[in-house]
């Protein structure tokens, strides 16, 4: 019967197996299909049915619709990196019950709904790194019962609600690094019985989230480095199986003696690069074998002697050296003798800042008629009920309130009484034209406010009165013709501002006054033709600036001055025909990702990329009209370079680019537009260069192949140190 079923399956799939979508490469023997860096805007419908591995990296899908992969039920691996995906429709992956690996990294996904990942019952690895995920609704991962690795690094998360990871019964590694987390629900990790490693480094946690971490009985490694944590309190960490704790590069000033008493298995403690002048004997950590204190301003006086004695008694290895007194400066801790550790005038460490209190949960109440309330998740929902007034009477401990798709028109003052615990408020598609002063009064813990797809054309600062913790404000698809001047004065914690697809014509001086903590600014799809030189001056912490799909005629170089943290700049689909010398100099020291695609760009000056170099990781130049590009040989850190649909003139002037592309281990897609005999050929394969002076020096097939091989060895060795994820991304040009 097994053989018969196999024959039938092959018979059903045999016809499909012979077809291959045009921009793709099909390996029927291994059941692999590659459709890399193409112009696909929809999932190809003619992929062989028996395909097991499908690689769609570098396309432009925007939305993954319902049932997009129903025709390929045998898929085990699916790669959708860098596909400009913004939304996963509910049921997008239904039918993929065999899928074990799904990579959605480096897209624009902002929100995960409860059924976005339905149908993936066998999935083991889910990669969502480098998206714009601001919020995860509890239940989003509820049907991923086989998942072992969940990667949510480099997103825009600020808050994790209770039970957000419910259903992940076998998850072993949860990666939440490089977000902006500063609030964790006490039950955020309650449903992760198999978790062994949790990565929370590079976030905004100001205190050890002990209550949330106490739910992780089986975790053995915890990464909390690069958080502004100043103090570890008594018995702050109760993790029964924890062996390795990383608290490096934080802001620690003190650690309580019994801080780790309830983590009896702790073996290594990394406290490098903090502000510790000393430590007490960590008597509670009986199993500790190693403590790293390198990079701390250790005062090796008599005040440190109890800790030094404890190290010897407990046989704990310590790394670190003295900063003071001057006579002991630079001495390793393990070289000190007690008599050397004297006291003159004792200078005790500064008083630590007490950890902030956990959010107190108020009592519950009734649920408004026609709405649903979930006491387990602290959710309330009145979605799509044709309501004309905002309902009241939700439980006081509600944290997420979903009022989408109603017809409110106006949000009056005090519209949400008694909801002090509310964190996330959804008002999308509600025909709202006015947000009245005081509308958010009393929402002192509100972090997320979604006002997408309404009729707002102006906002007063007083509308945000009473919501000082608001960090994410989504105003996409409204009717703004300019930024609501002064509206951000009462929002000191605003991190992310969305104003995409409005009708904003310019950014003027003062438009962003008060937005001093802003990190991500999204302005795509407006009509911006001018940015005043000082328009962005208040946003000195800005990291991402998205300006694609506007009417800019030139790179706004003067407006970029002072943005020393800017790492991502998108100028795609603007009518910029020429990029002049020094266009990116103001952000050259920080810029990592630059988008200059689909602009009709005709000329890039030789000095256009002056100042840019090894920090650049991705450069998008596809679908332009220039015939040459300037020297980029110092772009040694490139991981992505897209030169598709650029009509290069393949003559001797392009030889330096030809040689440079040859050395890259990247798929760049560069093709010749002229002369006629080379049109359509890949730049690497064109024979027009063989008549150029100097051809053969270093080229494959040239006069000195041995030297070429020898010269290439160091670069290969250097690349071998890349992480597996990056190495997988790179392939032959």
From TrEMBL:
The reply to whether Thylakoid figures as a keyword in the UniProt entry is no
Q: Which UniProt keyword terms apply here?
A: Disulfide bond, Extracellular matrix, Glycoprotein, Leucine-rich repeat, Repeat, Secreted, Signal
- PROSITE patterns linked: LRR
Q: In this protein, which residues make up the domain named LRRNT?
A: 19-53, 366-400
InterPro entries from the entry?
A: Cys-rich_flank_reg_C (IPR000483), Leu-rich_rpt (IPR001611), Leu-rich_rpt_typical-subtyp (IPR003591), LRR_dom_sf (IPR032675), LRR_TM_domain-containing (IPR050541), LRRNT (IPR000372)
Spans annotated as Disordered: 321-361, 693-733
LRRCT domain residues are 296-344, 647-693
Signal peptide feature range: 1-17
Q: Where is the composition biased (Basic and acidic residues)?
A: 331-343
Principal cellular location given in the protein's record? secreted
Mitochondrion as a keyword of this entry, yes or no, is no
Q: Which GO terms describe its cellular component?
A: plasma membrane
UniProt xrefs under SUPFAM superfamilies: L domain-like (SSF52058)
Q: Which Pfam families match?
A: LRR_8 (PF13855), LRRCT (PF01463)
Source species, domain of life: Eukaryota
Task: State the compartments where it is located.
Answer: Secreted, Extracellular space, Extracellular matrix
Function, as annotated: Potential negative modulator of chondrocyte differentiation. Inhibits collagen fibrillogenesis in vitro. May influence chondrocyte's differentiation by acting on its cellular collagenous microenvironment.
Give the family, as the similarity comment puts it: Belongs to the small leucine-rich proteoglycan (SLRP) family. SLRP class IV subfamily.
Q: How does it assemble?
A: Associates with collagen and binds to collagen fibrils.
Q: What is this protein called?
A: Chondroadherin-like protein
Organism annotation: Dromas ardeola
């Amino acid at each position: 019967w097994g053989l018969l079923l196999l024959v039938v399956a092959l018979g059903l799939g045999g016809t499909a197996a012979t077809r291959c979508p045009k921009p793709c490469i099909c390996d029927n023997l291994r059941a692999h299909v590659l459709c890399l860096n193409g112009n696909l805007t929809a999932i190809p419908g003619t992929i062989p049915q028996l395909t097991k591995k499908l690689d769609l990296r570098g396309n432009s899908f925007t939305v993954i619709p319902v049932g997009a992969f129903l025709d390929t039920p045998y898929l085990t691996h699916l790669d959708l990196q860098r596909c400009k995906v913004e939304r996963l429709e509910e049921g997008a992956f239904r039918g993929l019950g065999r899928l074990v690996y799904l990579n959605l990294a480096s897209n624009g996904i902002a929100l995960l709904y409860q059924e976005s990942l339905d149908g993936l019952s066998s999935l083991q690895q889910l990669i969502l790194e480098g998206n714009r995920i601001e919020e995860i609704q509890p239940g989003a991962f509820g049907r991923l019962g086989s998942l072992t690795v969940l990667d949510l690094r480099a997103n825009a998360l600020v808050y994790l609600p209770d039970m957000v990871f419910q259903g992940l019964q076998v998850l072993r590694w949860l990666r939440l690094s490089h977000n902006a987390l500063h609030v964790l629900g006490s039950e955020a990790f309650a449903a992760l019985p198999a978790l062994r490693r949790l990565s929370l480094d590079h976030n905004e946690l100001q205190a050890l989230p002990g209550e949330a971490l106490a739910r992780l009985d089986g975790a053995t490694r915890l990464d909390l480095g690069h958080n502004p944590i100043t103090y570890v309190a008594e018995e702050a960490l109760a993790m029964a199986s924890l062996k390795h704790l990383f608290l490096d590069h934080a802001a620690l000033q003190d650690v309580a003696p019994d801080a780790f008493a309830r983590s009896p298995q702790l073996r290594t403690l990394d406290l490098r690069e903090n502000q510790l002048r000393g430590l007490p004997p960590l008597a509670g950590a009986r199993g500790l074998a190693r403590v790293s204190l390198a990079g701390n301003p250790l005062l090796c006086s008599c005040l440190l002697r109890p800790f030094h004695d404890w190290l010897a008694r407990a046989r704990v290895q310590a790394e670190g050296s003295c900063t003071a007194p001057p006579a002991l400066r630079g001495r390793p801790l393990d070289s000190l003798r007690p008599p050397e550790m004297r006291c003159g005038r004792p200078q005790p460490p500064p008083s630590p800042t007490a950890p902030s209190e956990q959010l107190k949960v108020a009592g519950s109440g009734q649920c408004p008629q026609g709405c649903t309330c979930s006491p387990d998740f602290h959710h309330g929902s009145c979605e799509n009920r044709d309501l004309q007034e905002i309902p009241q009477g939700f439980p006081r401990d509600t944290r997420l309130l979903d009022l989408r798709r109603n017809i409110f028109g106006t949000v009056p003052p005090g519209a949400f009484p008694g909801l002090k615990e509310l964190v996330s408020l959804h008002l999308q598609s509600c025909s709202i034209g006015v947000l009245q002063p005081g509308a958010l009064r009393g929402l002192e813990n509100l972090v997320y406010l979604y006002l997408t797809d309404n009729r707002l054309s102006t906002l007063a600062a007083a509308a945000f009165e009473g919501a000082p913790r608001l960090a994410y404000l989504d105003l996409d698809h409204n009717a703004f013709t300019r930024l609501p001047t002064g509206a951000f004065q009462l929002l000191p914690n605003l991190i992310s501002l969305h104003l995409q697809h409005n009708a904003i014509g310019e950014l003027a001086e003062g438009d962003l006054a008060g937005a001093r903590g802003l990190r991500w600014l999204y302005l795509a799809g407006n009509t911006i033709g001018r940015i005043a030189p000082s328009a962005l001056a208040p946003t000195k912490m800005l990291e991402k600036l998205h300006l694609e799909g506007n009417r800019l005629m030139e790179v706004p170089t003067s407006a970029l001055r002072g943005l020393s943290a800017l790492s991502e700049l998108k100028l795609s689909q603007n009518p910029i025909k020429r990029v002049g010398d020094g266009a990116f100099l103001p952000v050259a020291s920080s810029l990592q990702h630059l988008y200059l695609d689909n602009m009709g760009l005709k000329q890039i000056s030789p000095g256009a990329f002056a100042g840019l170099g090894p920090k650049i990781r991705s450069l998008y130049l596809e679908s332009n009209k220039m015939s040459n590009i300037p020297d980029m040989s110092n772009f040694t850190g490139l991981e992505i370079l897209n030169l598709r649909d650029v009509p290069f003139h393949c003559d001797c002037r392009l030889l330096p680019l030809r040689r440079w592309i040859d050395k890259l281990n990247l798929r760049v897609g560069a093709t010749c537009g002229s002369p006629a005999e080379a049109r359509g050929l890949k730049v690497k394969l064109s024979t027009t260069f063989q008549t150029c002076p100097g051809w053969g020096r270093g080229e494959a097939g040239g006069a000195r192949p041995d030297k070429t091989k020898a010269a290439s060895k160091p670069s290969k060795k250097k690349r071998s140190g890349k992480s597996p994820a990056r190495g997988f991304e790179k392939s032959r040009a």
